[in-house]
């Protein structure tokens, strides 16, 4: 554990909703090609609803995408599976990329290990957090990080992409301003005809009043500091990395 070094890139400038999502794949390609070492990119995303491939095939998808735009969120279709998830500037996205010869070998363990790391970070920030799917949550997952004791809310969703020679583990941590997320998810899931419980959409500040994005980020970095030695890196290095031919296309559904 102590031998690991992780370069931390705090991205202040957004590439746009689609560009930020695309850039994670660019970084994965760079790690695979030996142009990027173990790295952690952190940024506050633009208002986005990231749909899964299955969502995009449902009859209600055009209405769901239009509802996103009506509410100020950009609808995108991600390459990963899962169901629709929403995020905005009150969230943090952590893209953890590492080159690894046998990237598939520990893929399942990564979900469990990083879920515990993220839950521990939130606990350090004063949020009662645990790991596991909660009934009725949006974009359900076995390794979701939730908060609360009786009335639990989803606080972190994770996804992973593995290629030959590298892996990408992405986490979205919801920290502030849950109401707009709950609103857009309600409209989206209604349009898609999917059941869910809106009360499961929340933010860390709902459970720990006064917690800010900056405060949560400090706790997250402290947790990652127990995984590896952290080294502050220049985010301009990431801006020079692109990988043509792997574009994530935004949806083209018109607003109602």
Automatic annotation (TrEMBL):
The keyword Ligase applies. SUPFAM superfamilies: Class II aaRS and biotin synthetases. It holds the Pfam family LplA-B_cat. Residues 34-232 form the BPL/LPL catalytic domain. GO terms for molecular function: ligase activity. It comes from the Bacteria. Keywords: Ligase. This is Lipoate--protein ligase family protein.
